[in-house]
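quick one before i forget lol
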Amino acid sequence: MANHADRRRKLCELIEEDAFVAYNYENSDRATLRYLTGFTGEGLLIVRSGESLLLTDSRYTEQAQRETSNLTIEQTNLWTGKGAAEAIDAREIKRLGFASRRVTHGWVETLRKATAAELVSLKDRVAEIRLVKDADEIAALRRAAEIAEAALTTLIEEIKPGMTEAEVALRLEWLIRSNPEAENIAFESNVSTGANTALNHYNPFLDPQPLRAGDLLLFDFGASVDGYRSDITRTFSVGPATEEATGIYDLVLKANCAAIDAAKAGMTGIELDAVARDTIADGGHAEHFGHGLGHGIGLEVHEGPSLSPRSESTLGAGMVTTIEPGVYIAGFGGVRIEDDVVITEDGHEVITSFPKDRLIEVG
């Protein structure tokens, strides 16, 4: 079980300011509040040495009491502004840090006018702490992958040509949500077929297309367990695969396996990205792999570390990242194969296991 008090103490050790503030309003920063307190609702958190204060309103007071421990909870309808300022000034906080990427300019200006404290823009210190997962976090990520893959295993036996992308997506999400350990789906599922598989973040509900024999079928999906999210992509063929589809699939698989085999602590995100990118380039599809190789997963589906040509990350033991090379050709479609990988002291552990050794036919 997470020790939220220890996490808050670690945060205090990282900052030079008197205190740190974070808030979650309409899911603006639910990850930070949950990581530091266990609270999953809306509210504002002030962390300083010796005290942590959670401000929330009557909708969430009882929930906060159930979900948290070892912190002060105060109820106020003004927690986004005046109430926060009053709490800050009552504690004579002089310098108050905040993660600039997590808040709006308007919120900062409102709070700056209401409090005597100096507001100090910081890098996301909590995200830095969250980079390295503990055993419980990795266990939740592993279980999230297992649940998602079990759902896909059931689903592919039910797929038939003529079903729409939306029908398949709804069934997949139902299978995930029906597992009692699943808190939710990890993110909006991408179930795409035909030329739509070349669209990286496709929405199957906007204009759902039917599955047709000979087309590719791509799933980008995941489950959430205790807030921790899996992120998996597998690509199939509806009926017998074309020669072109098989060739592209084999190339992407080669890049995926090469990058996984190379992944280890001390490697930079640029270096690992290059392993897959060079493989795809050697196969003649350099211009068809436009996104980065991967990203961290945890309480958010996209967090550090980053694997890309512009990455500033260096991999360390306990980090968990996706490895997801792809080839996308407009008008034809795309292939992506994505696995979730834990970086260990002596290499890596792949926590996804759905078969990928060939372009599997469904339907």
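fyi DSSP finds ten helices and 20 strands in the chain.
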